[in-house]
Amino acid sequence: MKFELRKVTRRFGDRIAVNAVSVEIPQGQMVGVIGRSGAGKSTLLRMINRLQDPSSGSIHFGGIEVSSLKGAALRNWQRDCAMIFQQFNLVPRLDVLTNVLLGRLNHRSTVTSLLNIFSREERLMAIAALERLGIEQTALQRAGTLSGGQQQRVAIARALMQDPKMVLADEPIASLDPLNAKIVMDALRDINEREGITVITNLHTLDTARNYCERIIGMAAGHVVFDGPPQELTAAAVREIYGSDRDGAGIDETMTSTSIDISGAASPAGKPLSAGIEALATARA
Ligand SMILES: Nc1ncnc2c1ncn2[C@@H]1O[C@H](COP(=O)(O)OP(=O)(O)OP(=O)(O)O)[C@@H](O)[C@H]1O
Ligand SMILES: [Mg+2]
């Protein structure tokens, strides 16, 4: 099923955060959205999930007009497109398992939700999701006591519990160290490849977008100024997205690097990390 934005605009007062964006995304793509701070990346994701409404234009998924959904249909849509945030948005005082189970809430009636009863099947599903992300040993720990990387993996497990068609991730690795950033991006790639879930992720680092995304959308001042595969993202395209600095020297790609690089030497796009680092990255705590 195809997802589509048609001339979507969002204004805040007289400021235009997203300006007439039209994009078509086939089911199963892994899309990175890049751009300077204030370019409109978060606003774009929030409109897709309907946390914010467009000022004009429309959003479509298959035959559904997402931008006009209300009530239960809107809640179903929000269940279908799970959000992942930079700050994880877990409930820190609740244990990890309960946080993951919260992803099921939209699948349940209000009464069973209020009673806070989760079935054995749902609990098993939650544990399986935690196992898949390599953090099942934290199930009974309070979410707030986990490291950032572990918390983001809990958030991904919670998203999986929603059985989503799409995962929207807003700077999912911006608060993480390089090793955890790799683990989290690998997890997003895995659900994209194995379940065919569309992933749209805002990233503030170009090398991550190049490494993980088959399609990159570059935004500047609310407009889409680039839309294509990473290999078409030339230095000129990067300058158009990020702009030039005052000397007109342009932006150097290393300035926007996440540096998943741990060895001290840059890891060129697409090149696998060394076996040692790979082992570390996949090791379970
Ligand atoms: N709720 C709001 N009220 C007023 N202005 C807003 C609001 N949300 C966003 N904006 C403005 O819209 C523009 C786009 O913001 P947005 O958060 O989408 O950018 P971004 O690309 O996600 O930036 P960053 O990389 O810093 O997260 C900015 O100028 C911002 O100040
Ligand atoms: Mg943002």
From TrEMBL:
Entry-linked Pfam families: ABC_tran (PF00005)
Gene (UniProt): phnC
InterPro entries with a match to the protein in the record: AAA+_ATPase (IPR003593), ABC_transporter-like_ATP-bd (IPR003439), ABC_transporter-like_CS (IPR017871), ABC_transpr_PhnC (IPR012693), MetN_ABC_transporter-like (IPR050086), P-loop_NTPase (IPR027417)
A GO term for molecular function: ATP binding
The organism's place on the tree of life at top rank: Bacteria
Keywords attached to this entry: ATP-binding, Cell membrane, Membrane, Nucleotide-binding, Translocase, Transport
Species: Neorhizobium phenanthreniclasticum
Domain ABC transporter residue range list: 3-246
Family under the similarity heading: Belongs to the ABC transporter superfamily.
Name recorded for this polypeptide: Phosphonate ABC transporter ATP-binding protein
Alphabetical list of SUPFAM superfamilies matching this protein: P-loop containing nucleoside triphosphate hydrolases
